[in-house]
Write a structure and sequence with these properties.
Length: 461
């Protein structure tokens, strides 16, 4: 009779461990599944298993509470049942090796507790967890139904426990959720895209485009625009013939028409407007008479809204106003495309002269108009926040004056620390050397990593 009870006890231990595994597997599989995956399975198969998974995922808070209850009950029952039964097998074995009855019984209980715990963890938790993570949909389809029926049996008790837990959570100022949010923020999607690069995921070019597209909404008109210092304009008194000449020389097709400077913009003209004028009248027709109204947006406007405004503008060009009402720059459809795809070249561009980034050994030749927030992705230098937007502005702020060609300056370090692709540890700083100037604007900069022990007094000339 004792042997039969021992065998039944071992079978009970195995069944309880399997029960723990079922609850653990369903817990991990349902929390790993995306709502879109479940809905697609329902649309494709439409069987009872897929609908059960959908129902469970829609009542995830209730399901998780039931799973936790099931895991707790089966684990407690496993320990209560397994320890004395296993001890019965260990006690005679320990007595055979020479231990006394008083010593073998407590040692047998300890061994049975350790072995029961290890077996329960491995076969009741770790193995089901790994299976559920590897195949969440398949696991959920097979095992969700028994867990759902278990929850229905203990519905009242589970709801009471859930009410207590939700009440405590609300006391912390947090509203409980009945299901996991399937939506992802742009930051989360961007991280997923970057982590998906590799042999089995996206190649680097796709990762770069997707990442920049997801971050586009965080950009502002100020980030996207072409600054006013680089904008080619025409005066209202300029003629259609001059418009054609400027278009030929610059390679641009659209130009703001101003009265004095960009702050007094009256409209925008396209080179096609000049070509519609009879050849004999082009030298007398002014571009002011051809100009069409141009929309103006604030420099703080978000990237998505900027794209909408550019698409709505018939000229595909909008002005960007600063906080003082002046014109900070312009945004064209090319600026928007380059914010997502990177530099776009056409037959009128001089790639070598206009290239914003060029690596030279461990150094980087950069445009002074490069935004500071792009430096981290390019070379690893993280610029601190300050009253500047571009690398040239950062150099001016650090020097405290208008730079001259040949000036060298040790750039400040952000509180978060500088990232460096070439050297280890925080002992690396970045030195900027002004390569060329465009009147009072920094045109080209050579950025190189240097030892942090380099004195700032020696960093300027």
């Amino acid at each position: 009779m004792d042997i039969l009870l021992s065998i039944l006890g071992l079978l009970g231990f195995i069944l309880l461990t399997a029960g723990t595994g079922v609850f653990v597997a369903v817990e991990f599989s349902t929390t790993s599944l995306e709502r879109s995956t479940i809905d697609n399975d329902v649309a494709t198969r439409g069987d009872a298993a897929s609908r059960m998974v959908q129902k469970a995922h829609s009542n995830l808070s209730f399901m998780l509470s039931g799973m936790q209850l099931g895991i707790t009950l089966t684990t407690l029952a496993t320990g209560y049942l397994a320890e004395p039964i296993l001890a019965k097998f260990f006690t005679p074995a320990l007595e055979l090796v020479g231990l006394s009855e008083s010593a073998s019984q407590p040692l047998a209980l300890v061994l049975s507790l350790v072995i029961a715990t290890v077996l329960s963890m491995v076969f009741g938790e770790l193995v089901p967890k790994n299976l559920a993570i590897a195949n969440p949909l398949g696991t959920a389809r097979v095992l969700t139904a028994p867990v759902w029926h278990f929850n229905r049996i203990f519905r009242g008790f589970i709801r009471a426990l859930n009410w207590v837990a939700n009440h405590i959570v609300r006391r912390f100022g947090i509203e409980p959720a009945d299901e996991l949010a399937s939506a992802r923020s742009p930051q989360e999607l961007s991280a997923l895209v970057r982590h998906s690069s590799g042999s089995e995921g996206f190649d680097q070019s796709k990762v770069r485009i997707l990442d920049r597209s997801l971050r586009f909404g965080d950009a502002t008109a100020e980030d996207i625009m072409t600054p006013r210092a680089k904008v080619d304009t025409l005066d209202t008194d300029d003629t259609a013939m001059q418009l054609i000449r400027v278009a030929h020389d610059s390679g641009h097709s659209r130009f703001p028409v101003v009265r004095g400077d960009l702050d007094e913009t009256v409209g925008v003209v396209h080179v096609k407007d000049a070509l519609t004028i009879p050849a004999g009248q082009r030298s007398t027709t002014t571009v002011g008479s051809l100009a069409r109204p141009v929309p103006t947006v604030p420099e703080s406007l978000g990237g998505d809204a900027v794209l909408r405004q550019v698409r709505l503008a018939g000229s595909q060009l909008i002005l960007v106003a600063d906080e003082y009402g002046g014109t900070a720059g312009i945004v064209t459809i090319e600026d928007v495309v380059e914010e997502i795809l990177g530099e776009v070249w056409d037959e009128h561009d001089n790639r070598e002269e206009e290239r914003e980034v060029r690596q030279v050994g461990r150094s980087w030749e950069l445009s002074g108009l490069l935004r500071c927030d792009e430096l981290g992705d390019i070379c690893g230098y993280i610029a601190p926040d300050g009253p500047y937007e571009t690398l040239g502005g950062l150099i001016m702020a650090t020097l405290g004056r208008i730079p001259a060609v040949g000036d060298r300056v040790l750039l400040p370090v952000d509180d978060r620390g500088a990232l460096d692709s070439f050297a280890e540890g925080p002992e690396v700083r970045w030195e900027a050397q002004v390569e060329s100037m465009d009147i009072r604007r920094v045109d080209k900069v050579m950025l190189r990593p240097v030892a942090a022990t380099k004195k700032e007094d020696d960093s300027e000339r």
